Amino acid sequence: MRLAWSTNHRLLIGMTVVVLSRGLVPAALAITARGLVNAAVVATRSDFPSLRPLVPWLLLGFLLTAAEGITSLIQKLFMQRLRDDLNYRVTLDILNHAATLGVAPYEDPRVQDILERAQQAPGERLARFVSDALGCGSGAIQIVSLLAVLIFIEPLILLVAILFALPYLRFHWRLALQQYALERGRTTKRRWSHYFVSTLTGRSTVGEVTLLRLAPLLIERFRSLMVEFHEQDRKLYRRSFRGGTVFVIATTAAMYAVFVRVVMRAVGGHLTLGDVAVFGGATTRLRNTLEGFVLSISSVLEQTLHVSHVIEFLSIEQPKAAGAAIRPATALGELVFENVSFTYPGSKEAALQEVSLHIRAGETVALVGENGAGKTTLVKLIAGLYDPNGGRILFDGIDLRELSRQHLHQQIAFVFQDFGRYEASAGDNIAYGDWGRLLGDSERIKEVATLAGVDDLIGALPRGYATLVGRLFGETDLSGGEWQKLAVARAFARSASLLILDEPTSNLDTRAEYNLFCRFQQLAKGRTTLIVSHRFSTVSMAHRILVLDRGRIVESGSHDELLAREGNYAQLYALHQRRMGGAR
Q1: In 3D, which of 364, 310, 324, 401 has the Cα closest to residue 116?
Q2: Which residues pair with 540 in a beta bridge?
Q3: Going by C-beta distance under 8 Å and a sequence separation of 6 or more, which residues neighbour residue 404?
Q4: Diameter of the chain by CA atoms?
Q5: What pTM, to 2 d.p., does this model score?
Q6: Domain tally, the chain
Q7: Any domain includes 339
Q8: 480 domain residue, yes or no
Q9: Strand, coil or helix: 403
Q10: Is 507:513 a contact under the CB 8 Å cutoff?
Q11: Alpha helices of 465-509 — where are they, by DSSP H?
Q12: What are 296-335's pLDDT values in tens digits?
């Protein structure tokens, strides 16, 4: 409710006034109907029948009926606007919080489940909560006001309302808890269903799925999940239907019995004909209002439980802020590892074990090792995407935990192994490397593209730098090598002291790789550069090569020095040469 208030308090006030006002209308209509019937009876018994005594009641009934219809439309309008405002606000809060969490939390499947639950129409859930909560208030006013009218005619109606409403409320309360527990337990399976859909329809997977004829298998797995969900839902639907049926039959019978008693009292002259008419209509309205009230309360509970998913996600702790958030005036790019160890969340085996190294400012260092040796983990720790479990990393002599993350990220240009393929123009794909400085500046973008050697590639596109690339929204797609060239250019667009290239030439052919190397010395001039690569042609350009094995640095030296030692590096190089069909 605080969130709804802070989002649009005027709308919430207006909605509250309208909803609560509508709660008084049924009782007012009942009183009006009673007055109208009694006035009509008096008029018919008069020697000179006239409609004049009926006019005030008729006019009041018209105004109340019109007001009920109009306030219903106003309530719907306010509800639509509040739902849109809340959906925008909550989704924005989720995205802003997600952007602060870094990479590590998303490695945990439990966080993925929390995010999945939080994304299930959070704005809609909050809006329904507000609507149902106000509906409970309106229903309570209707029940109290109707009972006040009906008790005046027949006090037994109060006992009937209590005897049947409380068990029905308890029934729906338990049903809401079961529904919530069921939905929460489905989270992982729902993620599996989304995965099957994206795999069967995703552009990057559809080719292999078609070739391997995996569609029938994946569709069957998806179907089995849906069948399981439907069976579980049907059981709850049937329980709800049976409970509702019992409530309707029991309350109708009880209220009808009381109504018969009212008719008998009217025949005996203790009540008026208007009392009978009002009691018959108002008890039906009361039964419907009681049912709606109970459903609103159970819905409020259900929505509260679902809203807790959003709270659960927003409560995920952000990475601890750096102590002093130091922002040095200058950045050189010097790196020091002091006994650094790291283990991924949920893993039992350490990815890095007590790694110590020193990379001088402006030095080009290559990281070599078999898959899983810890190369990519090491550079991701440098980029602050993860925090080490032990030891410390110094950037220009300052512990990363004390360094401003914003400053650190500004000083790093990173080409990821799984680099981004952004659905945007070719020019924007480069500008994203330093979008605050480059976005919209076509001249600077062109300078970076020319320096990185992708100007000819972009010039050949249908609309040049304005060409929308990617298949989701554009009509022009690029090859893997062309996307990687844009990723490299994007890294060089950033004015950073540290350049990290994780397999920068994995999608490039020999000619493109050679052209990149020819430009590399100029592009990397003045920057500390870390290269992660399995290609020895790429590695050989480094001043120094670090060889990793099972999370440890086992060798260090130049290409020639490491070959002379005939250790791990020499073995990897020999295998590479053998695969290439050449000799050492």
Answers
A1: 310
A2: none
A3: 322, 325, 326, 327
A4: 128
A5: 0.66
A6: 3
A7: yes
A8: yes
A9: strand
A10: no
A11: 480-492
A12: 888 888 788 778 878 888 888 766 554 457 777 677 889 9
